[in-house]
């Protein structure tokens, strides 16, 4: 349960960060869907959120 909560915190942080950047993003199970042209921003947001919450960098 703790890991599921942590995962949801990362996902919410990513979605909020992208919304502030004006990037449309949809949650998808344990990831996000963004327009192909915004893929780099989506990856960066995921990396920043995981680094901020876990001190770990997300890797694809």
- Radius of gyration, CA atoms, in whole angstroms: 11 Å
Helices, by number, come to 2
Parts with pLDDT < 50 across at least 5 consecutive residues: none
Mean pLDDT level: 90
Could you tell me the strand content as a percent range? 5-15%
The largest beta-sheet arranges its strands as: 1-2
What sequence of helices (H) and strands (E) makes up the elements? HEEH
**What's the number of extended β-strand segments?**
2
Structural class based on helices, strands and sheet pairing: mainly alpha
Distance between the termini: 24 Å
What helical percentage do the residues reach? 55-70%
- How would the global form be characterised? globular
What characterizes the major β-sheet?
Answer: 2 strands, antiparallel
- Number of spatially distinct domains: 1
Please describe what this structure looks like:
The protein is mainly alpha-helical and 60 residues long. The chain has one domain. It contains 2 helices and 2 strands. The protein has a two-stranded antiparallel ribbon with strand order 1-2. A hairpin with a 2-residue loop joins strand 1 and strand 2. 17% of the residues are buried. The mean pLDDT is 90.
Features:
mainly alpha, 2 strands, 60 residues, two-stranded antiparallel sheet, 2 helices, single chain, globular
What is this entry, summarized?
This protein has helices spanning 2-20, 39-54, and strands at 26-28, 31-33.
List the helices and strands and how they pair.
Layout (H helix, E strand, L loop, with lengths): L1 H19 L5 E3 L2 E3 L5 H16 L6
Antiparallel strand pairs: 1-2
Helix pairs in contact: 1-2
């Amino acid at each position: 349960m703790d890991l599921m909560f942590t995962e949801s915190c990362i996902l919410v942080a990513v979605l909020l960060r992208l919304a502030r950047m004006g990037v449309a993003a949809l949650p998808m199970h344990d990831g996000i869907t963004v327009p192909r042209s915004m893929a780099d921003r989506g990856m960066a947001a995921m990396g920043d959120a995981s680094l901020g919450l876990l001190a770990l960098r997300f890797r694809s």
